[in-house]
Design goal:
The protein is mostly helical. The chain has helices spanning 2-50, 55-79, 88-95, 105-120, 127-144, 149-168, 171-182, 188-209, 228-257, 264-281, 290-298, 303-321, 330-351, 359-375, 378-389, 395-411, 417-432. The chain has two domains: 9-209, Clc chloride channel (Orthogonal Bundle), CATH 1.10.3080; 225-432, Clc chloride channel (Orthogonal Bundle), CATH 1.10.3080. The protein starts with a helix and ends with a helix.
């Protein structure tokens, strides 16, 4: 009885703190998102302007991208090494009690470094920085309220979930991600805190980003049973390529480790220079890739051009992640998944196999299946894509394809990417000691 009273007495402070954490995360992640959108426009305007100066403009574009990326990597190395990459493995390690919470400087480095790196055009997503910054906000207010132990971890998890919710304007996805990936368990307190923080964060952020879904699509027809094999094939394709993508990320990081004798900012500047070169010839190919996902959903990019873009993005994502700057992999994965769905429809149509499946439906399903193959979090993938596109009529094919993709990735013995990144980080930390 005493324990129940103590738990009940701690419930109201938890709810109030979760709302405060959500409000501040909404402000931080919301402004981060808005500024990144402006950085994308600025990058496009810079490239367009630079084209008027020929070779000199090309060199200027490359130099700007290299300088911004190198500066982002320098800030991480100099002031907050835990701010590199997505930050999700670090959040998971903190929730497990394996590493202590981060210093407050991390939020500043993650914010500025993310703007520099993703704004420069690296193929990284804004969700990683937003998740880690949200977790940092949760830790800060937990410390201010003098919480400790599980209560503080709950606030960290709630902040992380609300960061993801703001990133994609998808409040339920934030809670799903915390339960399925970060906490890896269902617990009433964590769920309530995350739901409250996510709802509050999205409400605050929508004052800046609006109320519409990020990737609204026209109504999609329900799956005809005769098209089920096609969605299962899509699941297999996403499972294989998703497994390869996870290995490509780890391979790029291992390659970067071989050049540890070179300062990370110089290595990052080299990646930035390549991104600047690509941006000169095709500005839409670089950056987080929201425009590419939209093009796949709209059907405005087809055939061999789509295959070429897919190949470039498949390589550019891991290279960008290995640069050592802040940035996530969610958004780049959604790009690849949507493109795989459209390419499968194109291939089926080219060989004359009858199907009533819409390319839009396959693109939506491909997003969730590819995400599931890489991260191994099917619930998060399905809910996230459903919220992004405001489409629930393809839930059954998403479930079928995600199940298949997950099974294939498991059969390939590919570890979930965040588990592998966490193990890698732990090994490096142990070697440093």
């Amino acid at each position: 009885m005493t324990s129940d009273k103590r738990d009940a007495g701690g419930f109201l402070p938890l709810v109030l703190l979760a709302i405060v954490v959500g409000a501040f995360t909404g402000l931080v992640a919301g402004t981060f998102r808005v500024l990144l959108e402006r950085a994308d426009h600025l990058r496009l305007e810079l490239v367009t302007w630079a084209h008027g100066f020929g070779v000199l403009g090309l060199l200027l574009t490359i130099l700007c991208a290299a300088a911004a990326t190198g500066l982002a990597a320098y800030l991480v190395r100099r002031y907050s090494p835990l701010a590199r990459g997505s930050g999700i493995p670090e959040v998971e390690a903190t929730l497990k009690g394996e590493v202590p919470p981060w210093g407050r400087l991390l939020l500043v480095v993650k914010y500025i470094g993310g703007l520099l790196a993703i704004g420069a055009g690296l193929a990284l997503g804004r969700e990683g920085p937003s998740i880690q910054m949200g977790a940092n906000v949760g830790h800060f207010f937990g410390s201010v309220a003098r919480t400790a132990g599980e209560l503080q971890k709950t606030l960290i998890a709630a902040g992380a979930g609300s960061g993801l919710a703001v990133t994609f304007n998808a409040p339920i996805s934030g809670a799903a991600f915390v339960i399925e990936e970060l906490a890896k368990r269902f617990e009433t307190r964590i769920t309530i805190a995350t739901l409250g923080a996510s709802a509050t964060a999205v409400a605050v952020a929508r004052l800046m980003i609006g109320d519409a879904p990020d990737l609204p699509v026209p109504p999609v027809q329900f799956m005809a049973f005769r098209d089920l094999p096609l969605y299962l094939v899509l699941g297999v394709v996403c499972g294989v390529l998703g497994g390869w993508y996870a290995r490509a990320i780890l391979g790029a990081l291992a390659l970067a480790d071989r050049f540890d004798h070179i300062r990370v900012e110089w290595r990052a500047a080299l990646v930035g220079a390549v991104v600047g070169l690509i941006a000169w010839y095709s500005p839409g190919l670089v950056g987080g890739g929201d425009n590419l996902t939209r093009a796949a959903l709209d059907g405005t990019m087809l055939g061999w051009a789509l295959l070429f873009v897919f190949a470039i993005r498949f390589l550019l994502g891991p290279a960008s992640y290995a640069a050592g700057t802040p940035g996530g992999i969610f958004a780049p994965m959604l790009v690849l998944g949507a493109q795989l769905g459209v390419m499968l429809h194109w291939a089926v149509d080219a060989v004359g196999i009858p199907s009533s499946a819409q390319p839009l439906a396959l693109a939506i399903v491909g997003m969730s299946a590819f995400f599931t193959a890489v991260v191994r979090a099917p619930l998060t993938g399905i809910v996230l894509v459903a919220e992004l596109t405001n489409s629930v009529s393809v839930l059954l094919p998403m479930l079928a394809a995600s199940f298949t993709a997950m099974a294939v990735a498991e059969a390939m013995k590919v570890a979930p990417v965040y588990d592998a990144l966490g193990e890698r980080a732990a090994r490096r930390q142990g070697q440093a000691k």
